[in-house]
Design goal:
2 domains, Rossmann fold, binds N-carbamoyl-L-aspartate, four-stranded parallel sheet, 10 helices, alpha/beta
């Protein structure tokens, strides 16, 4: 059996992980290559080098999360870090403490990496400025989902899942690959981060959904938009379904959930124009709204659980690359 060795990679240019658009091409390939290595290492059952022994990671999620919070926690623990998951519901946040005080307090625990999820755009940058002002700038900030614009680690795990399905390495890119993102694109930070990443990797990206859930045309002039699911998924290699973000639709949706499923829900039958396509979903899924339960559970078509698994590898890569000092040692 060939021994899996950590790829020798250049140190990252970025200090923090705020968004895909603020991450260089080289850093993106470094992170994806490292994630590919960690995915293979976990798959092989080999011991995982505890490169983060003695380092402290704090997860502070001001919005609900199942996959992202638990996979960042597992990733840090697998690499040997001390991981604190702040129970926000029970914290002083509910005594009126400002975000920036919370962040400074948590960074003062000699924290090396803080993983932040927040509903406001710009929270991670504001947190990093507050840490700088308090002399705590060695703490790296990793964005775990912020507002409607950025969820960069989700985009990386989606791309990694595509590379694996295609049998490609990240440096080979996604040239010639057609990807349709379907559903509530307007309110989705997953769609936004993927739109920042997938075309840069060479993929052809399309947005598919009812007009009310598509972003304004001028926001993404390069991306083709389709109202018809049939047209939008034609010959796609990957079809990604997204949840309707009802919490971000103050007036609700004119369509009922049943009507949405009829017109835009993904099923085996409706995938006919894309006979080779794999189906993806970042979760949480609403079965019978954006996707049928039968399709979500079909191991021949659905990559949903593979995405969850790759979430750990991607977050290991992020923690390793941003925190591991002896960067190029084997
Ligand atoms: C997404 C999120 O929180 O942005 N979930 C995730 O992190 N996997 C998508 C969603 O909430 O619909």
């Amino acid at each position: 059996m060939t021994k899996l060795t950590r790829p020798s990679l250049s140190p990252l240019k970025a200090d923090h992980f705020f968004s895909i658009s603020e991450t260089s091409d080289q850093d993106l390939i470094t992170l994806l290559t490292l994630a590919d290595y960690y995915a293979a290492l976990m798959q092989s059952g080999s011991d995982i080098p505890r490169v983060l022994t003695g380092r402290t990671q704090v997860n502070v999620f001001f919005e609900n999360s199942t996959r992202t919070n638990s996979s960042f926690e597992l990733a840090g623990k697998k690499l040997g870090a001390d991981v604190l998951v702040v129970p926000v519901a029970a914290s002083s946040v509910h005594k009126g403490e400002a975000l920036l005080d919370t962040v400074q307090t948590l960074a003062a625990l000699n924290t090396d990496a803080m993983i932040i999820r927040h509903k406001e755009a710009g929270s991670c940058k504001a947190a990093s400025a507050a840490l700088g002002a308090a002399g705590l700038s060695t703490c790296k900030i990793l964005n775990a989902g912020e507002g409607t614009a950025d969820h960069p680690s989700q985009a990386l795990l989606d791309a990694l899942t595509m590379f694996q399905s295609l049998g490609r390495t990240p440096d080979q890119g996604l040239h010639g690959i057609k990807i349709a993102i379907c559903g509530d694109i307007r309110h989705s930070r997953v769609a936004s981060s993927n739109a920042q990443l997938l075309p840069r990797l060479g993929a052809e990206l399309r947005f598919v959904g009812p007009e009310a859930l598509l972003p304004p045309e001028e926001s993404y002039p390069e991306i083709d938009r389709y109202i018809s699911l049939e047209d939008g998924i034609q010959d796609a290699d990957f079809v990604m379904a997204l949840r309707i973000q009802f919490e971000r639709l103050p007036d609700g949706l004119a369509l009922s959930k049943e009507d949405f499923f009829q017109a835009h829900g993904l099923t085996h039958e409706r995938l006919a124009p894309a006979p080779k396509a794999f189906v993806m979903h970042p979760g949480p899924m609403n079965r019978g709204v954006e996707i049928s339960g039968a399709l979500a559970d079909d191991p021949q078509r659905s990559l949903v659980l593979k995405q969850v698994q790759n979430g750990v590898a991607v977050r290991m890569a992020l923690l390793d690359a941003f925190l591991h000092v002896g960067h190029n040692s084997p």
